[in-house]
Batch of 3 targets.
Target 1
Amino acid sequence: MPTVSSVTLTGRLLLLLLWAAHLAMATNWLSLARLSRSRPVSGAEPCGRLRGLSPGQVGVCRARGEVMESVRKASEMVIEECQHQFRNRRWNCSTTPRGINVFGRVMNQGTREAAFVHALSSAAVAVAVTRGCSRGELERCGCDRKVRGVSPEGFQWSGCSDNLSYGVAFSQTFVDEPERAKGMSSGRPLMNIHNNEAGRKAILHNMQVECKCHGVSGSCELRTCWKVMPPFRRVGAVLKERFDGATEVRLTRVGSRTALLPRDPQVKPPATRDLVYLAPSPDFCRLDPDNGIPGTAGRRCNGTSRLAPDGCELLCCGPGFRAGRAEVVQRCSCKFSWCCSVRCQQCKNTVLIHTCRE
Amino acid sequence: MKSLASLSLWRIIILILPLVSLGQTFEYGWPDNYDKPPQCVDIPVDLRLCQGVGYHQMLLPNLLEHESMAEVKQQAGSWVPLLHKNCDPGTQLLLCSLFAPVCMERPIYPCRRLCENVRDGCSPIMAAFGFPWPHILTCDKFPQDDMCINTPNDTSTSEPNGHPPVCPPCDNEMKMDVILDHMCASEFAIKTKIQEVKRENMDRKVTLQKKKRTIKMGTLKKKDLKKLTLYLKNGADCPCTQLDNTRNTYLIMGRKVDKQYLLTGIHKWDKSNREFKKTMKKLKSHKCPAYENVFK
C-alpha cells in the first residue's frame, strides 16, 4: 500500500513539472537562431525535433513549412536588434550559454524586459514574413495589389507594396499561439498577447511611402510610389521608447471578464500600442546564472556622463568602476583611388576606457 | 607598493577596422533596409551610357535604387543624348557612378565638386530641352571628402572655356546613334518645312508649314499637329543654320512641356546623305526603351 501511494505521488509531480516547463515556452522559438544553417526548419519530422516550439507552433511548422525560414530569420533579428537597443543598459539582452530560453528566466517573470522582447519578437516575425512576400520567396503571398491607382497627391501607386497584412496574420498565428494555449484568464498570457500586438502596431503605425521618379532624364513627370515597412531598426527604436514608458498593470476582474489595468489607479489604461508589464525588474547588478543575469562587472561604461544610462555610476550600480588607458589603432584619412580601390592610413589614438569593477 | 600598483596604467592596443567619419554628415554604409544585398554584375554591353567609363563591373541595385538591370537600362537611356553634347568632361563619370556604381565593399558616391561641375556645364543644355536638373542628382547630398569619385585628372582650377554659344537642338551630330537617341528622348517627330521664325522674349518661335508627315506621333494629336508651333527654348540668339533656311525640308523632333511644344532636334531631310538615309531606314525597326515594362 505505501509503495502504491509513492508511485502515484511521483507521477503527479512529474506531470506538474512538465506543465511548468510548458509555461516557459512563450519566446523559446527564438532558439531557432541557435540552430546551424544546415538544420532544416520545415518538414514533419524536423518540425517535431525543434525543441523551442510549442505543440501548436510545431503544427504551424508542419502546415506552413515554407514560412519557417522567415521565422528563423526573425529570431536572429530579435537578438541582434535587442542587443543594439539595450547596448547601454545594465541588461543588454545577453544570451544564455545554451538551451531554448535564449534570454534566460527574465523572460518568464512578467518584467518590462519581457514585454519588450515579446513585442520585438512578434514584430520581427511580421517583418520577416512580409519581406519574404515582397521578395517572392513565399509562394502563397506576394505584393499588396490593393494599393493601386492614382493617389490624391497625384502620383501613381505601383510597384511592390509590402503585404503587411499577411505577415501580421502569420505573426498572430505563430507567436500568439503559446499564449492562447494557456487560456486567456491569467495575467501572463494577457500581458504577452497585448505586447505582441503592440509590436505589430509599431510596424503598422510607421509604414512609409517610397517613390521613384522615372520620367525622362530622371524627371518626376512619371512618379511611382509604393508602401514599405520601416527599417527594423526603426521598429526597435519605437519599441524601446514604449519600453521606457511601459505601464505596470495587474489582473483585475471587470464584470465577468478579466483585464489588465494599471496598478496605480491614477495612471490611464494602456493603449493598444503601449507596452505593459506585471512585475518589477531586478536591478541586474550582480551575477545570477540561475536567472541568466550576467551582471555588469567588467562592462565598459561612460565615464564622462553621470545621467546617461551607460554612465558609470548607474551602469556599475555605484562607485565601483575604474579608468584605464588604451591605445586604439583606427583607419583614417581614407581615399578612393581611381579605379578602383580605397586606401586608408592607420592612426593611433590613446583613449580613456572606463569599466565596471569585477 | 599597493598604492603604486593601483596607480599604474595599462595599455591595450585595439585594432578597429571600421571607417572613422568624424564630423562628416554623409553616411557611409548600406542603408538599414531589407532589400537584397547589392550584387556585383558585369556592365552589360547594351548599357550604352556607361561603355568605356573605366571599369567593367557594377553594383545592382545601383545607387539610384534601380533594382533590375531592365530598370537601369531604361532610365539610363534618356541620359545618353546628354553625353553626346559633351557639356562637361565628367558627365559620364557622374552619371555612371550612380547608374552603374563601382563594386566596392561600401558604396562610393560621386564627389560634390564633380556633380557641381557637371550640373553647371550641362543644366543650361538640359533646360533648352525643357528638363530641370533632376532631384536624383542634387549635388548637396554628395560627399566632399576624399572617399568619393572625382575625375581622374581633376583640375581644381577650372578655367572658363571660350566655347561659342550653341543651340542644343541644332548642333546634333548627323549620326545614326545620336539621332535615334534624340528620337527616343523626344515625344514626337515630323517631316515638314519651316514657314516662319520669330523672336519671342528669350525664345525663338518656329511656325511650321501646313503640310506635315508624322514620323513619330507620340502624345501629339491630329488637331494639335495642324497648327503646331515650336519654341527654341532660351535660343533667341544662338546660331542655328537650319532655322535660317526655310526652303529645306527638315526632320523636326519635339516634346511638350506644360502648354508649350519645345524643339528638341532638327535635321535637314537630306536623302543624298548616306548617314541620314541609313537612319531613316533603321528608324522603322528601332525600338525605344519603354517605361511601362519596368513597373508591372
Note: The CA atoms of residues 214 and 222 of chain B lie 10 Å apart.
Target 2
Amino acid sequence: MQDVVRVRRHPTARRQDTGKPSHWRKNAMAYSLILPSLVFLFAIVFYPLATGLAEGFRYHSRVQPWLTRFNGLDNYVQALHDHDVWLALRTSLIMTVGIVGLSYLLGLVSGLLLNHKFRMRGLYRALILVPWVVPPVVSYISWQWMLNDQSGLIDVLLVKLHLVDSPVLFLSNPRLAMASIIVVGVWSRFPFMMITVLAALSSIPDDLNESAALDGANRWQTFRYITMPLILPVTVVATLLQAIWTFNDFGLPFVLTGGGPANSTTPLILLAYKEAFQRFNIGYGTSLAIISMVLMLLLGAIYLRLQKKQGVYQ
Amino acid sequence: MRTTSKRRPRLVLAATAAAVLLASACSGGSSGDSAASKDTGPVKLRYWDMQWGSDAFQNQIKANVAEFNKTHPNIQVQFQQLSWGDYSQKLLSAVQAGNPPDMSGGDSGIPFTMAAQDQALDISDLFKKWQSDGTFADMPEWAYKKFEFNGKDVGITWQFDQRAIYYRKDLFAKAGIPLPKTWDDLMAAAKKLNNSSKGMIGIAVPGKQGTYDTDQFYMTLVFQAGGSLADANGKPAINSPQQLTALKFEKDLVSCCAAKGTASWTFTEVLKQFEQGKAAMAFGAGFFANDITKNAKKLAPNVGVLPVLEGPGGPQARHSVSFANPWMIYKQSKHPAQAKEFLAWMMQKENLRKLYAAEPGGKWPVYKSLLNDPIYQSNDMIKALARQSVETGVDYWYPSNKGGVGIASLGTGMADTAINPVITGQRTPEDALKDADKKLAPLFQTK
C-alpha cells in the first residue's frame, strides 16, 4: 500500500515538501508571457546585430560573391587609412557640435521667453513646435528647394531686395553647404530643446526666484545661480540625446546636398550607406557603421551614467 | 495542485503562440506559385519592374501583361512595380532569400549584377531565335551585344534612355552661331552665348554629388574622347588619358559657361533653368523633350537637339549616352520555359510599340523600323532623339562589357570622387582620377 501511495504522488510533491517551488516554476507564467517579445527581439535586434558585427570582419561585396571571405581587421585598418573616413568623421563632428550647440542655445532662449506669462503663449508654444512635428524628409526637401541658387525662395528674395548681386551658392560652396546643413538641422531640432528646457523650468519652485529677488539678485544672477544649475541635468541629457540623433542623421545631408560638394557634407553614416548600398561593399560599409555605433555607444554610456546620477533608476 | 494543472494549458498556449509568431515571422513569402506546382491550373510567373514613367506608361505595362494573360491561359503573370529607391536591394535580397521573380526589369546594369551571383538565366536560345527570324537585324547592335556576357546571354534591351544636348534655335540664329559639331564648336558657342549680366548661361549641366545625373554628361564626353570605363580585358580604365581629357573639358566648360551653382544641380535644376529661358543649351535626358513641350510651350518651338558631337576620339567615337534598359530571367525561376515565352511576347515589336506609344518621347525604341512610326515624328526634338539613340547610343558598358560587374557597381562613385570635386575646384582632374581609380578599381576584380 505504501508503494502504491508513493507512485501516485505528484511529481512536485518533493518540492512542496520543502515549501519552496523552483524559480522557473514560480515564474513560468511571467517567462511565457515575455517569450514572444524575446523571440522578436532576437529576430529583429540581436540576430541582425550579430550578423552586422560579423560582416564588419569580412570582405563582402554583393556583386563579387566569390571574393567573400573573413578578413579579420582589414576593414578597420582600411578605414583608418581612408582619407574619406577621416573627412567624414570631421564632418560628423562639425555637424553634431554645430547643430546641437546652436539648437540648444536657441531652445534655451525660446524656452526662457515662453516660460513667461503673456497673451497667446500657448499658441506661440504650439507654433514653435511645427519644425519638430513636420516629417524630417519633408522639411529637408522644402529647404532644398528654398536654398536652390536659381529658383530658391531665399536667393530670389535676397536678389530682389538687392541684398546680394548674384545668388548665394548655399548648396554648391563647400563652406556654405555645411552652414546650410547646420541651419536646417538647428531649425528642425531646437523645438525639442525648447520643450525640454520648458519642462525643466516649470519644475523650478517660484519661491526660489522670489527669494533671489528679495536678496537683490538681478536677472542675470538669478539665471546664472538658480535657473542654470537647476536645468543643467536635463540640459546635459537632452544635448547628449540630440548629439546621438544628429551624429546618426542620414536624411539631412542625403536629401540636402547628397554629401557634396566635394564630399564636404558627407558624414560617417552617409559614407557607410554609400559603401554598402551604392557600391554594394557590404563588409566595408558595415565596418564604418560599426565605428559609428561604437562612438554612439560611448555617448550612450555617458547618458546612462548621467541618468543614474540623477536617480532615474534608483 | 489545481493551480499547477491550470497553468499548464496556459503555458502550452503561450508557447504555441510564440511558436506560431516565430514561424510566421521567419517564413519568407512563398514564390506565390503553389498552384503552379500542381499539375492542374495555369503556371504563375512573377514579373517585377521599375516605375519607368507616367501613370499612362505604367497602365500600359499592366495592360500588356493582362493581354498576355488573356491570350495565354496556361500562364498567369503577376506584375509588381518596384520603386527606384531600393529596387536593387530588393532584387538582391529576393535572390539571396531564394525567392526572386521569374523575370524582371531594372537599371541598365542589373543583368551583370545578377550574372555575378550566377542568378541570370542564359537566354541564348531566344537570342538564336531572334537572330534567325530577323529581329536582331532590326535592332542596333548594342541592344543585344551589350548583354552577351562571359559566353552567355543574360538579358535583352527593351528600351533606350537617351541623353542629349538641347539648344535654343533662336539664340543661336540671333548670334549667328552655326550648330556645333565638335567639342571646340560647343565651347565656342557656350562662351559666346554665356551672358551673366543678363542671367543667361551658355550651358546647363548637372554636377551634384550623390546623384546618377552627374556622370551622364561626363560619360558622354569620355566616349567622345575615345575612352571608356573598362578596357577590353575588363580592367578599369578610369585613370586614362581619355578620361583626363574629358574631365578637363568639362571643368573648363563649367568654369566658363555654366551656372556657378552647378555643383548642386541635378536634371531638375537643369531643366528648370532651360525652361525659364536662362540657358542657351542644356544637357538632359530624353524626357526633357516632353517636359519642354508640355511646360514651356512658348519656348518649345525654339528648342532643338544638337547633333552628337565629335571629340578628340574622332568620328568613330561620335557617341551619345543612351542607357540600354533590359529585361532578364532569373535562374531560380521554376518555369524558365514559360518565362521565356513571356519575355519573347513582351519583346514583340507590336507589344513594345504599345509601351512606347503610351508615353510618346519618353522611351526610345530598340527597333530601327519604329523610327518612322508616328510616335517618333511628333516633333523635331523627339525625331532627333530617337535617331540618335538608334544611331549613336551606347552606355557605360561600351565597348567591352568584360568589366560589366564593376561598372554596374560604381553607383555614384565617379560623380562623388572625380566630377563633383573637380568642378567645385577642390581637386585637380589628375588627382581626382587617380583617387577615383584607387577607390573604384577593386570593384572590377573578377573570378
Note: The radius of gyration of chain A is 28 Å.
Target 3
Amino acid sequence: MRSGFYLFFKKSVSRRKGRIVIAALSVTLSVAMVSGIIGMTAGVGAKLGEELRAYGANIIVSPREGNYLAQDVAEKVSRIDSVRGVSGQIFGTSVFRGQPIEIIGLDIAKLKDRGWRLQGKWPQNNGEILAGTDLRSQFKIDIGAKMHLPGGDIGGDFVITGFIERGGTEDSALILDMPDAWTVTGADRQFSAVLVRAEAGRLDEVVQQIRRMIPQAEAKTFRQIAVAEESLLRKIQLLMVIVTVVILCAAVISVAATMGANVLERREEIGLMKALGATKAQINIFYRAEAILTGLTGGVAGFISGYFFTQAVSKGAFGSYVPVPFYIFFISLLFGLVISVTASYLPVRNALKYNPAVILRGE
Amino acid sequence: MSFIILKNIVKEYGPAHALRGVSMEIQKGQWVNIMGPSGSGKSTLLNIIGGLDTPTSGEVFVEGIKINALSEDDLACFRREKTGFVFQQSHLVPYLDAVENVMLAQYFHSMADEEEAVGALTRVGLEHRLKHRPSQLSGGEQQRICIARALTNDPVLLLADEPTGNLDRENTKMILELLKKLHSEEHFTIILVTHDPFVSQWGERVLMMEDGSIKSDAPINP
C-alpha cells in the first residue's frame, strides 16, 4: 500500500461515518439473521444428537396397556443377544407446597456420563435427589432444600443436592433414584418405560424379539423418532436456506443503494482524483477498502447479534441455550464481505467510468 | 520541435461541435492565454491538451508524446507526471486540510511527503494556513492551495481554467502575480483560459476563440 493511503482512507471514512454506519448496519442486520439461522440449524441438530446420546439408548419399551411394566420386563430384555444395556424409568406426580410436581425415577448413577448440565452434586445416598432448574425459581428453593413428597403409603423426605438443565421435561421435574421414586409413586418395582441399548444394525431384529417375548409391551427404535425429527429438521433447513437467500438479496440491494448514494456524492472527488492522475486501480482501492471495512464491521456485529438472537429463540422454543459453533463467526465475516463487496461492485464500476472533464465542469 | 503541437483537432459532443479543426503550436516555457465567449471551445481545448479529454479526431503532441493515442492508464500517468491543473472552482477535498490536499496529488504521483507539501504551500505564501480546511479559507487562498497542488509534482505544463473566475480584482491580481513569479523563476509552460480581458493581458500570447475555432493568435505587448 502506498504511503499516505491510511491517512486519506481514515479521513474519508471519518468524514462519511454516518453513511458507513448505515451500510454496516444493513450488513449487520443481514448477517445477524443469516448467522442466527445457521446457528439455530446447527444448534438444533446438535441438540437432537445430544438428546439421543443422553439417553444412551436406541430402543424404548413402553406398556401397551396401563401405566407400568413389570420389573422382569427389563430382566427379560437384558437377556436378548445384541442387547448391551437396559435401564428402567418411572414417571409420576407428587405434590409440593400444594402444587403438583413431576417425578422421574431412574438409575442416577448412569446419568453421570450423559452430559447433563448439573449445578451442585450428584446424589450419593438414599433421600438425596436432583431438581430441574425451572423448579429453583418456581419454588424459590436452593441446594440443600428439604422436601416432603407425599405418595405411596407414607411418601418420603428428601434433600436437593443439585439442579439439572437439559432443555426438556426434566427441567421442571424432580429426578429421583429408582427406590425413592418407587416410594413416592407407589409403583413398587415397576417401570413406566425401559430404555434399551442394542447393537446398531440389529435394532429391528431386537424390536421384533421384544414384541414376541413381551406381548403386553410396545417396542420402538429411537431411529423412528429420529427419522421423523430429521425430516422435520430438513424442512426447517430448506425454509432457512430460502429465507437466507432472500435476506442476502435484500441486503445487497440495500447496501448497493447506500454505496450508490455515497459514490454519487463523491463524483467531484473521483473527477479530481482522475485529474490528478489517479489510475482506476488507485481509485478502486479506496472504495474496495471501504466495502471491506463495512463488511468486516457488519460481519462481526452481525455474528454477535446473531448469537444473542439464536440464544433468545432457543431459550424461548426449547427452554435452554443451544451451542453455537465457532465456525459461524468466520461464515459471518464471509457473508459480511460478500454482501458489501458485491453491493459496491456496480456503483464503483460506474464511478470509474466518469469523465473527469465533465464532472469538474459541474455537469 | 515545438513543446505542444495540435493538428486539426475536432471535438464533437453528439451533434454539437465544440472544436472544429484546431491546429497550433506552443513553445516550451511560453505563457499562452486562451480567450473567448462561453461555448467557444476554450475549456475543451485546454482539457484535450492536458489529457483530461480526448479529441474526436486530430493529433495532440506534448513534449513529443502523442497523447491522443495513449491508453486510459497511460493518459493518467501523463497527467500526473507532466501536468498541473488549476480549476475555476478550486475542487479541493473538503475534509482534508491545506497540506493534505497537496499531499493527495503527491500520493497519486509517487508518495505523500508532508515536508514537500509544506514547501509547495510556502511557495504560494500559505505557510500560515497549513492546517486549515478549505471552508476556513478565502477564495484566493483556496486558489493558491490549488496552485501549490498543481506544482508539487514538478510538472512541465500548468493548465489553468478560469483560475480567477470566482475572485475579486485584488485576489485576481494576487494569483496572477504568483503565476508570473513562478513562470519567470521556474519557466513553466502555462496555458490559461479566461474570458476576463484584464487577465488576458498577463502572459506572452493570447489566442481568441469563437465557435470552436481560433480567430486570432497574437503576442501580448509587455
Note: The interface with chain B takes residues 2-5, 7-8, 11-12, 14-15, 268-269, 271-280, 282, 355-357, 360-362 of chain A (CB under 8 Å).
